[in-house]
Amino acid sequence: MSFTDIVTITKKDLLLEFKSRETVNSMLLFAFLTLMLISFGTGASELIVREVGATLLWIILIFVGMLGVFRAFTSEEERGTLDGLRLAPISAESILMGKIVYNFIILFLVEVILFPLFIVMLDYPLEGSFITSFAILTLGVAGFTVVSTAVSALVLSARARELLLPVILLPIIFPLLSASIHALKSILNGGMLLNVRDDCVLIVIYIVLFLTAVSYTHLRAHETSL
Asked: pTM for this one?
């Protein structure tokens, strides 16, 4: 795995995305419309917002994330550059890590816009720290990006891959999402970092273990699929 190759893949994808802005615009539009529907559905009920707000935010991020993450690979097919990636003197691990970094940057940009809108549009009675809540959400987004990008690469050549992705991804990522939702809800409602320490540790361990497992097993077995 080469750091230079990872930067090259990430830079290439970011330049192409910021030139067209197709993926980012689609993700933001979907997130905004979904958030509007949720705000109408919850009304002004502070109790409902407190109890399910963090879960609803993560539901939006899951669907927006799957939409954007999978595009990182399907766009290569549409541009006819997938064969070029296979032939390039770049390891499969570097390609995947480049895609992970790219997807994280895109999802982070969406998060930067979505999270303040979530607070304002749902009139969330925020009692905890906005910065801490944002940091907790970012940690969860990082974990989601790692797992979803790796799974997207594995199902790329499968039939009905758009349907297969959520079927495989959601059970795998459930523990990470549960910890992320619990931690975010706790901080939003006035909890301290000490209260969500175990959740944060679980997310970090999950990321590290999954990256290690992917790097040393799945990617070597599926190197030709990238």
From this structure: 0.88
